[in-house]
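Morning, I've got a small favour to ask if you have a moment. I owe you a coffee for this, so here goes:

…
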Amino acid sequence: QVWQIPDYVPVRNITEPVVTLEGHSKRVGIISWHPTARNVLLSAGCDNLVILWNVGTGEMLLVLEDMHTDLIYNVGWNRNGSLLVTTCKDKKVRVIDPRKQQVVAEKAKPHDGARPIRAIFMADGKIFTTGFSKMSERQLGLWDLVRDGGSRPGQRRPGDPGDTPSDGGDVEEVWEGGTHHVSLLSPSPPQSDLFQDDLYPDTPGPEPALEADEWLSGKDAEPILISLRDGYVPVKNRELKVVKKNILDSKPPPGPRRSHSTCEPDVSRPALEEVLEEIRALKETVQAQEKRISDLENKLCQFTNGTD
């Protein structure tokens, strides 16, 4: 279910979702919005399926099946939303092209431990993984799966250019078991009250770069960036509207045309009176139950006060 949270403080409880998406046969544990396309939502469930939805129309766009043999641990988009990276209980990291519905690269056992593995895309296209060794030591890995077909990890080594600590924090890099491990220490505090572009670079904003149909047809676009210099100011009119793809698909049954001046009611008089009578009966029942509840509350007060 997708819920619309208003920008203002609601005066009543939100009880109805904007849209309900139905397609998984088991519990859904992962959802993720597309980074650049409007209203495209990913869901992954315990049925080992990944489904892509157009929330704006409430329709299912793509179903990625027969790609995972076991429980999916996590799913992540790359920067422009053209690829997915997934981790699975079968100890494989997969890179998937969702529109072609095929696995373009995979890596078996990036970490040897039995505990779950997580993976995300970096901005440069490399894949960053977290996991554990056989001795339950935490490991971090950086891999060039797309470029090398999963054959080798990232090629930067300690001492290479770019491995020296930066002003934003100290970085210690080591290799162990063929995996690139990174340990991040706490960043140094800023030395100036002025806005620092190197610490706060432009970041993807809320505005989509593509429509859902454009992305589905094969078009890609980089995220639309916003500056953090003046803080984040939310845009207006961001309300999600769910519409049918073609409202004319639901045509009325064929039959004799009627004039616009025809005043035949849709509901017959006897049926209307029956509904009104049922409403009156329900009201009487509610009033009787309220009186009974009031009498019981009074008796309870008497017992509590010891008067009976």
